[in-house]
Design brief:
The chain has 355 residues and is of the alpha/beta class. Helix content is 31%, strand content 24%.
Amino acid sequence: MAMNLGVLDQPVYGISQRDKESQLGKALWELTDHHRRSCVPYDRLCNRLSVGKGGPIDMLPWLPVRLFKEHDLRSIPDDAVFRVLTSSGTTGASVSRIALDVDAASMHSSLLARTLGQVLGPQRLPMLVIDSKSVTRGKSFSARGAGVLGMMNFGRKYAFALDDDLAFDGEAVRKFLRQFGTKPFLIFGFTFMAWEYLRQAGELGDVDLSNGVLIHSGGWKKMQEQAVDATVFRSELASRFGLRQIYNFYGMVEQIGTIYLESPEGDGSLCCPSFADIIIRDPVTFEPVPDGTVGLIQTVSLSPRSYPGHSLLTEDLGVIVGRDDNAWMGKRFIVKGRLPRAEARGCSDTFASRS
């Protein structure tokens, strides 16, 4: 389908919330029409819900994110499938299967590059991956593997901190830091794994990570069990290794290509890019709630074009804490946790449950 480039031409964090809602809303309704024409089950659901043809963003039809664990929803023919991504979950739990064609995969990479470019700059940096190379192998990828592969597009001269048995590879880390540690470099890992294994780098002696930029996500449930919050996470890595450029992000395989990056203010809030947004809904009535009220997070994004995942109701609780009041424009929000009894789905939570 032809792209509506209005919002995609805007700076990632340089458009006001009011202007964004007008442009993004129009593009999202066009995307809804595309998926209705291309995915029969989705169109059937929209008909049952008497979905209209336009309106504010909060009137967009949404799908429960869990639906992708139960149904194979695609807006492309089977012979156009280029890659299938799967979500993480607890052992024995069902997983989402997200089908991408070549154009969708390319768009997701482009949107991710634009977002991460805000903190990494235009050049590909030497990259230390806090994971095993084994997660990148095969034709079908878990969310963890897809995350590593996606981030590798922004790095070069890769080194993996874990061996194929998921044991810390001190020699690989030592060699990487000898070669690249005196200039800017990228570190990527899911939050629990970054916490667990970066601290083991202290066993190598006097380790300096002050030139590193750490991008991490997921696994806060496991971290909270150890009484480690974002403040402790940051202060520990800064005091032990001089690592101060640390950015958490929020995202999911069901809306691949879209991430909500941590604010540069270091306050722990997450920022909505120009091509995506969130709505907070009451967990009982599903009506939108005012800013400052905790509710279910609905994510909307222009990235899902090969499957109808552009408007999803997650099982995460969050709260909007600001609009256009930061170095980056748009909404800022904080994730507060999961709905009670919601299935654990974080990539590094899953890793931890298998170790």
